[in-house]
Every structure is written in C-alpha cells, then in structure tokens.
Design a protein that fits this description.
alpha+beta, CCB2/CCB4, 5 helices, 47% helix, rod-shaped, Cofactor assembly of complex C subunit B
Length: 221
C-alpha cells in the first residue's frame, strides 16, 4: 500500500501538468478574441505545465524503486541441534525470531566451530553447511560480508544450503567462533540499521556461546 501511494505521488505532477496544458489549449480554441494579457497568461500556464511534467518525469527516474521480493523456494522450519544447553537454545530461538520479525531476513543459519546449531525460516534442501571461500574469509578476517544481489556473485554456489532463489545474503561473524548466515527474499534490502542490529545480535550470541559451549572441541572449518 505504501509503495502504491508513493507511485501516485510521483505521478501527480505529470497528471496535473498534462491536465493544465490541455485545459489551456481548450480555452485558447474557445476564446473568440485573444487579448494580449491572455496570451501572456497562456504562455505562463504552458510554461508551468511543462515544468510540472518535467518534474514528474525527473522523480520517476531519480527516486529508486523498491527491490522486488520473491517467494523463496523451500519449506518453513525450525531446527536446533539437540545436544545444546537449554540456555543456548533459548538464546538462539530469541535471536532468530528477532531477525525474522524485525529485518527482511527469511532464512537464519547459525554455525559454531563447524557445527550447525540452528536453521530457521525458509530452509533449503541441503542441511549441511560447508564453508566456501566467502564464509572462510568472514571467519578469518572477522568482518561481515553483505552480498546485496546474490545472483550477481560467482561465489553464490557455496550457499547451496540456502533456498536456491535467495536474493541477498549477510554473513556475520560470531566472535572468532562461528558465523551467522542470513538470507533475504529481495536484493539490496538490508539497511545500515539492519546491519548494525545483526552485528549486535551476533555479539550477544558470542557471549552466550563462550559461557555455555566452551566444553565443545573446536571443529575444522
């Protein structure tokens, strides 16, 4: 509904300008005798109508369109590793719910030292997460990676554990332990505020894992 309202507002100058120009033309034809003052008024009206139309066309080009969302291919699910402490399960459940309800995220995957702890949202067919070059770099460099339009990246093949038509992906390190992988159903849909929010949740998960999962031997990544 908001998008429709924006489109109407952007088209309004064009409609008003065209209507004004048409009415001026009709008035000119219906006037039996044209005075000098009316000629000046008509010229000014035509100029204003043209300006309105030009402004409307400019808005159509300059103002960005909202990215097109798709229906992700997969089944909705909520999977937790069964051997986790209850405190970790509760933290993962809360974190994934916040991400799914407060951002454009449709798929959440959490890994800790090579082990998949959580899969939630629209799930892909492959339950195994095998880190490729992108995920490896995120873990090693301790810096998040945002793939704004996944189909444009050759490295997208490593994300075969996400729904195959995932549009955007954020890979957020969880301390030095693991990674948070988020999939969206629209390209270029995460904002800077979303990225800050995601980083904060990853930090919170890192604290939780450090408290409750230190007895787990690190796995090879």
């Amino acid at each position: 509904m908001a998008r429709d309202n924006n489109q109407v507002l952007k088209s309004l100058p064009i409609v008003v300008g065209a209507l004004g120009g048409t009415l001026l033309l009709v008035n000119r034809f219906l006037t039996p005798e044209l005075t000098e003052s009316q000629a000046r008024s008509d010229a000014l009206g035509v100029l204003l109508s043209a300006l309105l139309i030009f402004t409307g066309l400019l808005w159509q080009q300059v103002q960005p369109r909202s990215p097109e969302a798709v229906e992700l291919i997969g089944k909705e699910g909520f999977e937790l590793a069964p051997d986790l402490p209850e405190a970790v399960k509760a933290e993962l459940a809360w974190a994934s719910l916040m991400l799914l309800t407060n951002t454009v995220t449709r798929t959440v995957i959490v890994c800790d030292r090579g082990k998949v702890l959580l899969r939630r949202g629209i799930l892909g067919d492959n339950p195994e997460v095998k880190p490729g070059a992108i995920l490896q770099r995120v873990i090693e460099k301790q810096k998040p990676v945002y793939l704004v339009d996944l189909k444009l990246y050759p490295g997208r093949i490593e994300f075969d554990y996400l729904p195959r038509n995932t549009q955007g992906v954020i890979c957020q390190p969880i301390g030095k332990r693991g990674v948070l992988v988020l999939g969206a159903n629209a390209p270029r849909s995460y904002t800077q505020q979303d990225e800050n929010w995601i980083a904060g949740i990853a930090d919170k998960l890192d604290v939780c894992f450090s408290c409750y999962l230190n007895d787990v031997a690190p796995a090879e990544i």
